[in-house]
Design goal:
single chain; four-stranded mixed sheet; alpha/beta; six-stranded mixed sheet; 247 residues; 2-enoyl-CoA Hydratase, Chain A, domain 1; 12 helices
Amino acid sequence: MLNTIEHGEVLEIRMNRPPANALNVEMVDSIASAHASACVQGAQAIILSGLPGMFSGGLDVPELLQLDRTAINRFWTAFLSLMTSLAGSSVPVVAAITGHSPAGGAVLAVHCDYRVSAAGSFKIGFNEVRVGLPVPRTILLALERLVGGRRAAQLATSGLLLSPEQARDCGLVDELAEPDAVVQQALAWAQQTISLPPIAMNRTRLLAKDKFLQELKAADDADVATDYWFSEETQAAMQGLVENLRK
């Protein structure tokens, strides 16, 4: 599900679960394990990347719909724990958004320190509401940190997907690159960042989001998301999504 590529002191974790890098329990656990291992083994920065044209299509809804309540709670716990780990990473994490990044893909990206997106006819955003799933509170907070409270409310409530250019203009992503240069541009940012005095840089980086990290650690979003997952409205919308995917 993952490939790891060394770029000197920077480790790239490349999601490799075709066709959409859909997030199931195994995928989430694999990313979490690779991130933790990279930090322990001395990587100075991490790039999280995807397939050409597809960063991540979000949750693996067809697979997750087959799970019982205990397993879904396990998924949400693992997923939100991964977000906390990325946001609180001991080393900088840059998202190389190699293509489409709706829903869970956008969630991964906003918990990284920096985002380089492929330019072109791709879409990124928080369209969970359109498939009947309320956006968890801490994910809204992550979005607010980047685009501001009013814009975050508009984007999340409407479920609007943005072009890379629109995402850059509102602060959802930091810069654009040609699709075949996204990883290299992310690597350039990582190398420039780790050229700074590391203790001062990493301490300041984490202090700048201390309130957000405290919110993440105290949240009970996994239980709340599990309750919503099994609501009549969400189940109906998710089943409709699966039917559309089959067609």
